[in-house]
Amino acid sequence: xxxxxxxxxxxxxxxxxxxxxxxxxxxxxxxxxxxxxxxxxxxxxxxxxxxxxxxxxxxxxxxxxxxxx
Length: 69
Fold this sequence. Notes:
The chain is mainly alpha-helical. The chain contains four helices and no strands.
C-alpha cells in the first residue's frame, strides 16, 4: 500500500509521540503490553486505515530509506 507524503509525515509525527516504542531508554520500552498499546493508539489515530503489522512494515521501510539517504 502506497502512502502519500502527508500520510508518511502524519505517521512519523504520531510515532515520535510514543517514545516507549523507539527509545530503548524509556522506562516502558521493555513492557510489551505498553508498546503494543502505543502501536494500537497510532493505528487508531492514523488517517490511513491499516493494521499494526502494516504500520510496522512501513516503519522499517522508512528507516531503511532514511539510513540510505
